[in-house]
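Please check this protein record:
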Amino acid sequence: MTDIRSGADPFAELGRIVLGEEPLEAVLDRVATLAKQLVPGAAEVSVTLVDGDAARTAAYTGDVARDIDLTQYEHGDGPCLTAARGREIVRVGDFATDERWPPVAQAALRHGMRGVLSVGLPVRERVIGALNMYAAEPDAYDSAGIEVAETFAAHAAVALANATLYASATRLAEQMAEAMRSRAVIEQAKGILMAQRHCTADEAFEILTQASQRANKKLREIAAAIVESTAK
């Protein structure tokens, strides 16, 4: 959990952390901490991230929030997952009377939480999420509180979008580098075959392709084996 500097303007702090170069989890941790400070009624806060079928709590202000989140992941349903998947706002005024998610309600009441406000993060990518604010009192969130919560969710969404774009760019760079390495070794193998069998470049490539199919191995692996055997 992150400590916010004493005397700092939380909203100014919120704007700064999105523009920084911190890891995603560190940014989300600070968003959760600030949300707990500023959203009226928030006793504990967490950030849920969902990648495909896998959900996890990327940031939380206390074990209570994380444990209630885990109950939702175990059952595959709950306010935070509903908010994340629908990119919507889900509010539970009182777990003692809400009948939508009994296992979640039981876990929340066991931890002394009476309600929750989950705000979906508006990110159009593979990874989605929600900002979850658990309340110790029933009916803790009014329209003003929801508006403040949406502000924090928007900043968390920006951080998530930036991290997703960075990860995508990194993967693309790695794929391009691997493709260049593969092309280089294939060209080497073609040259060796052309010299050994006095064939054209197209014929050498056809030989590699047929060998790849017969061995049920990638073309690069066949090419690498030829280059390695020649180097010995």
Observations:
- The beta strands are 44-51, 54-60, 89-92, 115-120, 127-135.
